[in-house]
Specification:
Order of helices and strands: EEHHHHEHEHEHEHEHEH
Radius of gyration: 17 Å
Largest sheet: 6 strands, parallel
CATH superfamily of the largest domain: HAD superfamily/HAD-like
Organism: Streptomyces poriferorum
CATH class of the largest domain: Alpha Beta
Pfam family, one: Hydrolase
Number of helices: 10
Protein name: Phosphonatase-like hydrolase
CATH architecture of the largest domain: 3-Layer(aba) Sandwich
Oligomer: single chain
Length: 235
Amino acid sequence: MKTLNHDSKLNLIVLDMAGTTVADGGLVEQAFSAAAARLGVEPGSADHAGKLDYVRATMGESKITVFRHLFGEETLAQRANAAFEEAYGELVDGGRIAPVPGAREAIEQLTSEGRTVALSTGFARATQDAILAALGWQDLVALTLCPADAGGRGRPYPDMVLAAFLRTGAVDDVRRTVVAGDTSYDMLSGVRAGAGIVAGVLTGAHDKDQLTRSGATHVLGSVAELPGLIARAEA
């Protein structure tokens, strides 16, 4: 881990949404199955199982990138992505989403300490906005980012973290940024951006070994533990 000066404050916090601050409850897989069925992938087939395994392995990546890999041809990928976003949006509208316990409180604590918090996602903007509206989080943080807000490349690229760094001006050194997420792609994104703390959380897709292998500097039970970790790092 990069060392920080004792007077350095970790004032930019970039948090993932589904699986990290938002309890997804398997909605990604359900929405994928609905989208795949619309494109003729039979539920229960070997093709469906193989594609679902890939979706699980790439949790955290930009969804359109996942569909480009699975379906190849751009028109099919765009159709699949649109169907996925529609299915996910319907699940969100149906009340199938909730905050991770303690997530809102952690965000409010970090903000009250003078830190800037950004929420990032691999979903499209319309889906991200639907999740924020369902939770009543539209005004909770200073910045929300989806891949299209950072040039179109989602995780594992560092683009969304660096976009938060550039847009907020919250810190003058990228090492004073904290990134937290539940997937290997979140960890890779944080490491590649040069964040001082890259924290994995165990409330989502990937386990401690996967998070650590992808560069997590810390692994927490949940994002609720993040304010304490930051306080200790600054002490």
